[in-house]
Design a protein that fits this description.
This protein has about 260 residues and is an alpha/beta fold. It has a single domain, classed as Rossmann fold (3-Layer(aba) Sandwich), CATH 3.40.50.150. Helices cover about 45% and strands about 20% of the residues. It has 10 helices and 7 strands. A 7-stranded mixed sheet has the order 3-2-1-4-5-7-6, sandwiched between helices. Strand 1, helix 3 and strand 2 form a beta-alpha-beta unit. Helix 5 packs across helix 7, helix 8 packs antiparallel against helix 10 and helix 9 crosses helix 10. It is globular and about 50 Å long. The protein starts with 9 loop residues before the first helix and ends with a strand. Bound molecules: S-adenosylmethionine. S-adenosylmethionine (SAM) binds next to helix 3 and strand 2.
């Protein structure tokens, strides 16, 4: 994995969509997007999606949650290319704009967005304090941040955790829900929810494993090739142990910038 390429090559991208649905590189699909949004109204809002990937959640934010506009940002050109295609197929190119960025300062003016959304992408951003400070800056007063983030525990990685991280090969940094909540508050937000989704994902992972293993494995091989399919199955199998053991804890954070 080169520095410029963060590891989301085509077979990896298609393997993730195989498990999680068209436009999704993370679990749970539209139902999970609805859980992240919860009861916050997005009607008429301009939403920034950090780490939009192939854009499935952005389509959902507009079509189901009635966001007026979504600006999605990502560091992977390949993913954005596919995302733009999906957005175009849905006839939403005038409302969803997917932009390539480099990691770091968000390339937007202060007070630009009504809502900042992110699904399972901030695990790639090493400094929570930095990114939540940036989110606070680009949000309008009164705006919401709603994030699903892959968090963890403070103890050193178990053997199976180390194995999973090695198999995934991505730049994952897992902070705790306590640290993340503290950072969000320190940045000036009013924290409304910090919800641990570990139990949900433990159950969800059984479906995930079923979609790629057993009788479905041969179809996965046809779709992405033998090596990528084997890699997907061993990575998800190790991840199941990590989730069941409580070391990987997807969590939802919702907070409000005082108006
Ligand atoms: C697990 S995928 C999730 C994608 C999408 N949110 C979804 O749920 O399908 C993580 C995404 O974060 C992107 N990413 C990694 N580092 C990033 C950064 N510094 N800024 C924005 N996106 C980043 C990756 O390229 C990838 O698309």
């Amino acid at each position: 994995m080169s520095k410029q390429h963060h590891g989301y090559d085509e077979a990896f991208m298609l393997g993730l969509e195989w498990m999680w649905g068209e436009g999704y590189l993370s679990p749970g699909g539209p139902a999970e997007v609805a859980k992240i949004v919860d009861d916050v109204s997005l009607r008429g809002c301009h939403v920034l999606d950090i780490g939009c990937g192939t854009g499935g959640a952005d389509i959902e934010l507009v079509n189901t949650h009635l966001a007026e506009r979504v600006t999605g940002i990502d560091v992977e050109a390949l993913l954005l290319e596919r995302g733009r295609k999906l957005v175009e197929q849905k006839g939403l190119s005038d409302r969803i704009d997917l932009q390539l960025v480099t990691p770091g300062v968000l390339p937007f003016d202060d007070d630009s967005f009504d809502v900042v959304f992110s699904k399972d992408s901030m695990i790639h951003i090493p400094d929570k304090q930095f990114i939540y400070t940036e989110i606070y800056r680009v949000l309008k007063p009164g705006g919401w941040v709603m994030v699903s983030d892959w968090l963890g525990v403070s103890s050193p990685p178990s053997d199976v955790m180390a194995k999973w991280l090695g198999l995934v090969g991505l730049d994952f940094i897992l902070e705790t829900i306590e640290h993340t909540s503290e950072v969000v508050t320190k940045c000036g937000f009013e924290l409304r929810d910090a919800v641990d989704r570990n139990q949900w994902y433990t159950e969800e992972m059984l479906k995930e494993l079923d979609s790629i293993g057993g009788k479905n494995f041969a179809a996965l091989v046809r779709a992405i090739g033998q090596d990528a399919a084997k890699q997907r199955l061993s990575s998800s199998t190790a991840k199941f142990e990590v989730v069941k053991g409580g070391e990987l804890r997807p969590s939802h954070i919702r907070a409000h910038k005082p108006g």
